[in-house]
Amino acid sequence: METRDGERVPVAGVTIGVDDRMTAVADAKGYYLILQVPEGEHQVSVLIAKLPAAFRPGAVKEGKVMVKPNRNTVVDFEVLRTGPQTTVTSQ
Fold this sequence. Notes:
The protein is an all-beta fold.
């Protein structure tokens, strides 16, 4: 997610990693899914080297989560735009 005009908006193309072994890429709605993560504590992080060119990590770029059986675990991250936003329109 990025914050634009005070609102959080999704960012596609952000790669998230779990324990430096499993990864997923956020879709256009900012969602990502990593399946078959073993039960227990895991390190989840934004893969900085794979961020889209116009972004850098926000204040929260990693964290520990506890994965429980048959439960979804949600982790949100923020990325910050480093350059101006470009809008393309057609006529």
